Amino acid sequence: MRRLAFLLRPGWIALGLVVVAFTYLCFTVLAPWQLGKHNRTSRENRQIEYSLNTAPVPLKTLLLQQDSSAPDAQWRRVTATGHYLPDVQVLARLRVIEGKPAFEVLAPFVVDAGPTVLVDRGYVRPDQGSHVPPIPRPPGGTVTITARLRDSQAVAAGKDPFTQDGVQQVYSISTAQVAALTKVPLAGSYLQLVEDQPGGLGVIGVPQLDAGPFLSYGIQWISFGIVAPLGLGYFVYSEIRARRREKERQAETAAPEAPAPPKTVEAKLADRYGRHR
């Protein structure tokens, strides 16, 4: 126990607590965070790939009622027949499309004998900084659209909707938030128009099928969580060995010289008579 007494010093205690906390974060926060992002990205890539190779289906087969959503069918191409609400419009601001700022134009679409869904008509570029440009109205009357089904986005924390240039603007495409702003009940999922559709604007493409670096990052955090306590153990072992060697050197230095053994009679006579020759 005396050899380990140095571990109770404040410096070693602090180092031990840091290592324990870091290891805990690696296994419970950092690694799961990156692995979770990898799983979500992989899931979305599978959904996109499936949608690219599958024919569109009627929207009403996936959204059965007004308050329904279809998270398992995100990016799936669907068709819907109905009409836009032309006097209701919301812009999603601070979007970046093809490396440039943009507004995404959102409008409710009433499906015949089906739910009312939010439609992302596409994007427009801002005028003179962040001003809203003229936006063409959607067509009147009954139209049939083809779009990709999208999940509602989380509301941006601390960023409330506001009105600028006479248009209501939001920071995320949350169907619940847009429904509250427009007073129009909306389904839980929304639609993103593909190319050449009635009411369409600048086409928003699908993300590239790239899993990203999240899996390798997650494995790295797991490795760090394993290496950190092993490194602390190595330092403790090295410190114990160094202290042991230091004690051995001190013991050797402090030990008295052993007395010379008594001389025999023969040695005494040799010394005495040898000097007189």
TrEMBL record:
InterPro entries found in the cross-reference section: Surf1/Shy1 (IPR002994), Surf1/Surf4 (IPR045214)
Signal peptide region: none
Region described as Disordered: spans on this chain: 246-277
Membrane topology value: Multi-pass membrane protein
Record field: transmembrane: 12-33, 214-237
Keywords tagged on the record: Cell membrane, Membrane, Transmembrane, Transmembrane helix
Composition bias type Basic and acidic residues, residue spans: 265-277
Record Pfam families: SURF1 (PF02104)
A GO CC term assigned to this protein in UniProt: plasma membrane
Compartments in which it is found: Cell membrane; Membrane
UniProt similarity note: Belongs to the SURF1 family.
Name this polypeptide is given: SURF1-like protein
Classification of source organism: Bacteria, Bacillati, Actinomycetota, Actinomycetes, Mycobacteriales
